[in-house]
Amino acid sequence: MTGIAAIGTYLPRARLERSSIAEAVGWLAPGLARSASGQRTLAFWDEDSTTMAVAAARDCLSGSAGRDAGDRIASLAFATTTPAFAERQNASVVHGALRLPPDCIAQDVTGTPRGALVTLHMALEAASAALVVAADRPVSRAGSADEMQLADGGAAVLTGAGPGLLAYLGGASLTSPFADRYRRTGSDFATVWEERWVREEGILKLVPDAIARALGRAGVGAGDIDLFVFPGTIRGIGSAVAKKAGLGNARIADTLAARCGDTGTGHALLMLAAAMEEIEPGERILLAQFGQGATALVFEATEAIAERRPAVSAQLDAGIPERHYLKLPVFCGLLPWEKGLRGRGGVNEALSVAHRYNDALLGFVGGRCRETGAVQFPPSRISANPQAPLADTQDPYPLADRLGRIASVTADGLAFSHQPPACYGLVDFDGGGRLMMEFTDPDAQAMRIGDAVRFVFRIKDVDEQNAYLRYFWKAVPASAASRAATDEADRRSA
Amino acid sequence: MPSGLKDRVAILGMGCSKFGERWDVGQEELMVEAYLEALASAGIDPTQIDAAWYSSHYDDIGAGKSGTPMAQALRLPNIGVTRVENFCAGGTEAFRGAVFAVASGSADIALAMGVEKLKDTGFAGLPTASRGTFVPMYLPTHTNPGNFSQLASAYSARHGIARDDLKRAMGHTSAKSHANAVANPKAHLRKDITIEQAMSAPIVAEPLGLFDCCPVSDGAACAIVTTPDIARGLGKTPLVTVKAIQLVTSNGWEMQQGGWDGSYVHTARIAARRAYHEAGVADPRAELSFVELHDCFSITELVTLEDLGFSAEGEAWKDMLDCTYDIDGRLPCQVDGGLKCFGHPVGASGLRMLYECWLQLTGQAGGRQLDAPRLALTHNLGGAPAQNVCSVTIVGTGER
């Protein structure tokens, strides 16, 4: 028996009001006004598919199932149609940030938003402890339907040897050269074909076929499905597929179009996670996605689902409304903007140095002196504790999952930033040690001395000249809930 | 405890270029300007200089990371020229090298020069500098206004000072330096401002506004030092001698450990304590005639007044508002306008402060001459509050 042991999601905080898109580019595309309601997520300037994949995976692994799996995660697949690097495996960056075991097999999966379910299907058939992460930050033409409907976000699932939260009953994947959209390597934008043709000749033929095969393998009747999860931007497409496939009793999962948009490769998993907040034990779920074929997977909710519910609604509620349409093309790199002299310099990453410090930079691992307990970042041969500058006494000390408190702040209007002013300051880690860190997200300027923070993996610098992205960790406000949980843990350990 | 430098080295002469936006000259001409004045005031021939130290921080203005640019600009007689860099404290570092050379007996006469030509970089504010390979991979992209605004936020949080009170005290700090600089023909900014102007200026990094920040200037300053005996032999009177030079460098404690609350500069307190001991100063507030502090930002000056023991902790902002540090106050501060108005050519500033001390102590300060000063202090800070190089130098007349 195998199944989904844990699931996690990530939505960027900023939510671009679709009405602001229509106001900015509606004159070019009058049809936009009809779809100009609700919000779509907008990745901050320092987020890409890799950072959102890391965030979703951390959410997935933060529960007991994730912690138990720990060192036994055998494989990592990172599915995205918007990989940050074409060469340099992006999954290896996710692997480094998550500090997965060195013998964990990692792969990038790309080419179709169905990539996440394809990989999940394979992992479930293999019944292995696999981590499947998916995230996209689509780049769309101004005034396109994609710009309105697509969105930024990520999701992750952990499979395991036991039934977990959702026991796997069976599945099917069909492959077809059906091209509803394409984007040649090196091209910025996708070309899409007529929606009615995609619906009639593509989705409504391939998906019901995959569903029928999956149900057959699962030994479950079409009428026994309680919930159908199927992402798509075509209005009413979930109901149409359900009808064609004979899912007479199934609820149709919310596409989250109104408050989030379609997050691409991770969207089926995001919709599943959102639905899992209300699924009852024993209910049967059909999860499907379309793209150069179709995948359909059948699950049954276990008793464990009541114990650990995903927090998608909380993530939806944590959005910060954004009305500056231009942040979309600027953050995506579509619009050249005046960076000034301070923004001109290249990063010129020394790859050899980055590799020497991979644990520190990607894994956010500091050092802790085993004699004095002094914590520091970055680690060094001689301890930063001036009372006891001992040599070679430091053990690796992971900091990513700790909380911190702000010791000093600035909102620097002079430093180069993609979202001025640059906010940064000293952060004291719970348990010792401190670091001057960048604060990020749209509300960074509200951070004050004494505030609790948690740490997120983000783009640190963008090197336009050498087409390089440098990643590191930044501080964001810690929720009251995570602060209370940590204080409680400290009390217990004290 | 070492016996120290007190009265073992004398200032023979000094020079200083006009500071400012010197579109008319390069770093070579700036050095020559300061050098010729120093040479004339010292009353020596270039062949009498045994060794030289040269401070320049930025390497991207054609100055080069060696002693050759200065040796060539000044056409020095094939003596050893050592280039030093220690952030904004480089000028004091150069002076320290020259003083050490004389005190050790390896040089009879040594020269120290600091220069910075910043206005050919195209930047308003200090240029972005190379930080090496590893550090930028984790430290934020930062500027000095950003770094020192954190000193302001931590200082006001520690002492519970309302924003408006701190802004007013910072405004007084800058207005006082502007008033002083009006009487200084070599200063970059020679224009009175009001406290209200300072308080309402555009914010650069909260709570620091434009008038809380020193300008970026071109300039050079130069000192020629020797033994007290040689100086006396050349008829130098009153004789200005070095009483103490202390330089303290952060070891990462402030930046990486949790003990420092960010409201003061740890190294400044250590440097001051050591310098007072070396100079035999028991009560600095009473014994010092005036001080030249590293007022890169108004908040730096306020906090430093406490770190050096002139004001009680948390009280400097009140003392500033009470005019204690005005030119006619109990302890005049930034008599020449300071970094704020004389200007801040990074590698030169430490020597510029000593230039003002030397002018005042020898009665050459013209319209801003203080009444019979005897003992002066310079404080030269390089880096950021969390990680820096801090020096305190004391010079004076008469054997003490």
Summary keywords:
heterodimer, A: 494 residues, alpha+beta, Peroxisomal Thiolase, Chain A, domain 1, 2 domains, B: 400 residues, four-stranded mixed sheet, 11 strands, globular
Please specify the SSE layout and strand pairing.
The complex is a heterodimer of chains A (494) and B (400).
Chain A (H helix, E strand, L loop, with lengths): L2 E8 L3 E4 H8 L13 E4 L6 H13 L2 H6 L5 E5 L10 H9 L6 E5 L5 H12 L3 E7 L8 H5 L3 E8 L5 E10 L5 E2 L8 E2 L2 H24 L8 E3 L7 H9 L5 E2 L14 H9 L8 E7 L2 E9 L10 H6 L2 E3 L4 H5 L19 H6 L1 H4 L3 E5 L5 E2 L17 E5 L5 E3 L3 E3 L9 E8 L4 E5 L13 E12 L4 E10 L2 H14 L1
Parallel strand pairs in A: 2-15, 4-5, 4-6, 11-12, 11-13
Antiparallel strand pairs in A: 1-7, 1-8, 2-3, 6-7, 8-14, 9-10, 13-14, 16-17, 16-18, 19-21, 19-23, 20-21, 21-22, 23-24
Helix pairs in contact in A: 2-4, 7-8
Chain B lengths: L9 E7 L10 H16 L8 E5 L12 H7 L5 E5 L5 H15 L4 E8 L27 H16 L3 H19 L13 H5 L3 E3 L2 E2 L9 E8 L1 H6 L6 E10 L3 H4 L9 H14 L4 H4 L2 E3 L5 H10 L8 H6 L16 H4 L7 H13 L13 E10 L2 E11 L3
Parallel strand pairs in B: 2-3, 2-4, 9-10
Antiparallel strand pairs in B: 1-7, 4-7, 5-6, 8-11, 10-11
Helix pairs in contact in B: 1-2, 3-14, 5-11
